[in-house]
What we know:
InterPro entries: DUF1996 (IPR018535). By secondary structure, this protein is mainly beta.
Amino acid sequence: MKTLTTALALIAPVHAGLRFPCSTLTTQRLDPVVEPGKIPSAHVHHIVGGNAFSATMEGDVGARATCTTCQMAEDFSNYWTAQLYFKHPTNGSYHKVPVIPVQPLLGGSDGAKSGLTVYYTQYDLTRDNLNQQKITAFKPGFRMTVGSPTEEGKPQVGLRYQCLQGQNRGPELDSFPTGPCSGGIFTTHHFPACWDGQNLDSPDHQSHMYNTIQYDGFLDAPACPSSHPVRMPQVTYETVWDTTQFNSLWQSGAPNPFVWSFEGSAAGTHADYMFGWKGDALQRAMDKSECFYDGCGSITKQAMSVANQCTIKTTVNEPVEGWLDKLPGR
Length: 330
Ligand SMILES: *[C@@H]1O[C@H](CO)[C@@H](O)[C@H](O)[C@H]1NC(C)=O
């Protein structure tokens, strides 16, 4: 089993893609992809990115937003996953699990406030196969999801958990770790990267895309199929859930006490993507081929102290923090 750490160690000098932090924008029950217009949506999401985020998002998000919590100043996309909660093993109350920045774990430190780290990988992190297809950036209005909250008990390709023991990420797991993790729980959501070339969305928010990931989304992807011939950037989210304050409540041998905000099975994790880059900024970065992480200066970056000032109003006024008798919306 190759972990990201192994993959990174194997990186050849020629490789490309973006990796950058985004601070938390909001944590509330909104989902403009799966439940547009619905206030509140069914369950709580942890959301990062541009300030055009709202229950209903149509058209060119990148043209409407005026700030972003992401380091790439021209990226007004929104990225979100379900929020993680701790379920008290004896009294059944729920507590939101805090999020901490990912980058320190990857050897950087960037001043992000909670949030998640986003990748736009051109092909893979090793670029062993140089016959790669051209990467076409997403278009305004594009959106997609990966995974499903209702895939009960079935591991989903590209959706992974790791049990952090200090700086050690450990093996990738299909489901929640089975014992306390001293450094928290690391989750990875890899999206599919082959597009049908026509639809900005589809009824299930997935069938306009095709997933060529076999095990790890950072490694060689096979060619896109003729049904979905257009190779898009491989979008990935990494999140560190700081579960450490709950470890003392996890008795040895007891089952995993962490649940997603919809309280489905662990395998039912999912993530949503709403494209919102300004103009051709993402395409410019994808056309570069000799650098990784920053787009070779093709994209303007902002200090995270500036990104952290980007906020939106809370639309759904209900508690999502502290001890809760039940999960919001459940
Ligand atoms: C459950 O336990 C937590 C932590 O001790 C406490 O704060 C919370 O109020 C308890 N919930 C109930 C319903 O008793």
